[in-house]
Amino acid sequence: MPSLEPTTLIVETTASEECPHDFLGDTADIVYFISFIAAERYGADHPLAKAAALLKRQLGINLSPLLNFADARTESAEEEALLERLWQDAGPLAECAQSVAVAIEETPALQDLTSDFPDLPLRLREVAGIATWAGERGARLRLTYLI
Question: Which of 20, 57, 93, 139 has the highest Cβ tally under 10 A?
Fold first, then answer.
């Protein structure tokens, strides 16, 4: 039976206080985008995979911080260990998310490739805001998702 929960990106931080920044809309587009960043290297032909290729190869944006993610649900000790390895420094993620948002907004080819995901730049800016906030506190963060 299919899940009734929406596809959701979860951003956790190690900060001792709760982050005042949150997503102002559906995060499914980011989950799809980061999934196609990962799939791009295997020849995926989806517009988001093509956008990832353009971002990496033509614009030289390091997408590695967005590739550090996994399913939030775990079923084994190995999957739990993987989640623990996902914690990353906030600065590179903030820079990456912000750079991708700007590139999408300023590059006609990226606008075309992401046209079915019009809120993607907004959600990426929100990731950047959360990561910037975490970085200012010396905190790390982790990206997981629910599908």
Answer: 93
The answer to whether 49 and 110 have CB atoms below 8 angstroms apart is no
- CA geometry: angle at 125 spanning 91 and 99, to 5°? 60
pTM surpassing 0.90?
A: yes
Contact at 8 Å (CB) between 129 and 57? no
Tokens 């989640």, residue located: 83
Q: What Cα–Cα distance (Å) separates residue 101 from each residue in 30, 82, 96, 124, 127?
A: 11, 28, 9, 6, 10
Closest CA to 113 of 23, 44, 26: 44
- Can you give the residue ranges of every domain in the chain? 8-14+24-146
> For residue range 18-56, what is the model confidence (pLDDT) as tens digits?
999 999 999 999 999 999 999 998 988 999 999 999 999
CA distance 46 to 109: 14
